[in-house]
Write a structure and sequence with these properties.
The protein is mostly helical and 323 residues long. It is built from 16 helices and two strands. A hairpin with a 5-residue loop joins strand 1 and strand 2. It is elongated, with a radius of gyration of 24 Å.
């Protein structure tokens, strides 16, 4: 990869000197090319570090240099976090901000610009566990049933498309971005395959199974879609033939909630949660579900599926190869 392909754009900081701006540019290039963080995460980290530098310049009454940054104390960081919390910033965003600052601090340390020990001394804020609620099996199946949309005042190919997307979210446990990111060539015809290669967060790929009836729904949609679907193009397209936006599926789900009498928690992401929860309730292996969901950590899968400690102990008791 060429230098121009990986270099980050110049950063202008009125609150800090050029050395900080230059190191931020190098840090962002590192995050994107080596850590392979998503553009959204990189942008959020940049925003968080910039806000901290602006706070620090005002807090200390001087422009921030590499020497000033490396001498930051825990009290400075806590004051910044307290200010952000006063602005009603959620705990999850505060935790991300601290993660961004720590990442930048570790990068500076690797580059030989001092160690910001205070970043390790500050505890991450506690956040409440907010879990999407799984749908009952029957409701999840109805959302993925094309017949439920028959009679809608929309073109048949559109409700066939929406049914195929819903079935894919529930049948394979995909994130909506993963489903809508599929290319036509990525989806086998019914009987010609039973797996999908998915590119998830951090550009990591994983293999997930796909049901034949889901492939049939996708084929039915493609057969009546008025737009050309080339192999290298998106599998799911919008009304004008461009890539289908997640917002369209979210609005479709909102309409179906009313028609089927489902709660507001019935969202596209709830279908992914339902996939994991229903597999687990029928004896699915935690590690296998982790792989299917594309979670880097098993603890993420535990939180995601709302497993309590008793359920974990049950899995342990029934699967551990005791002597």
């Amino acid at each position: 990869m060429t230098k121009s392909a990986t270099a980050s754009p110049p950063i202008e900081l009125d609150c800090a000197d050029e050395s900080i701006a230059m190191q931020m540019m190098r840090w962002l290039t590192y995050l994107r090319s080596e850590r392979r963080l998503s553009p959204k995460t990189s942008e959020a980290y940049t925003r968080d570090v910039r806000q901290f530098l602006e706070f620090l310049a005002e807090h200390l009454g001087e422009r921030v240099t590499l020497k000033v940054f490396s001498a930051v104390e825990a009290s400075d960081i806590r004051a910044f976090m307290a200010l952000r919390r006063a602005d009603e910033i959620a705990g999850r965003s505060l935790m991300r901000a601290l993660a961004g600052l720590r990442s930048f601090g570790r990068f500076l340390e690797r580059e030989g610009h001092g160690k910001v020990g205070a970043l390790s001394a500050v505890r991450a804020p506690k956040i409440g566990k907010s879990l999407p609620k799984p749908l009952p099996v029957a409701a999840a199946k109805r959302l993925a049933d094309a017949d439920e949309r028959a009679g809608e005042e929309r073109e048949p190919w559109i409700w066939a498309r929406d049914a195929a997307v819903m079935a894919l979210l529930y049948g394979s446990g995909l994130r909506i971005s993963e489903a809508l990111g599929l290319k036509r060539r990525d989806v086998p015809a019914p009987g010609a395959g039973d797996v999908l290669i998915i590119t998830g967060k951090g550009n990591k790929t994983r293999m997930v199974p796909v049901l034949q009836n889901v492939l049939t729904l996708i084929q039915d949609y493609a057969a009546i879609c008025p737009h050309h679907l080339p192999p290298e193009g998106p599998m799911f397209v919008g009304a004008r033939g461009g890539p289908l936006a997640p917002r369209i599926i979210q609005l479709t789900m909102a309409r179906l909630r009313g028609a089927l009498g489902l709660p507001d928690s019935a969202t596209p992401h709830a279908l992914r949660h339902s996939f994991a929860t229903h597999l687990l309730s029928r004896g699915g292996d935690l590690r296998a579900i982790q792989e299917l969901l594309g979670h880097a950590s098993l603890s993420t899968t535990q939180i995601y599926t709302g497993i309590d400690s008793e359920r974990l102990l049950e899995v342990y008791r029934t699967t551990h190869p005791r002597a």
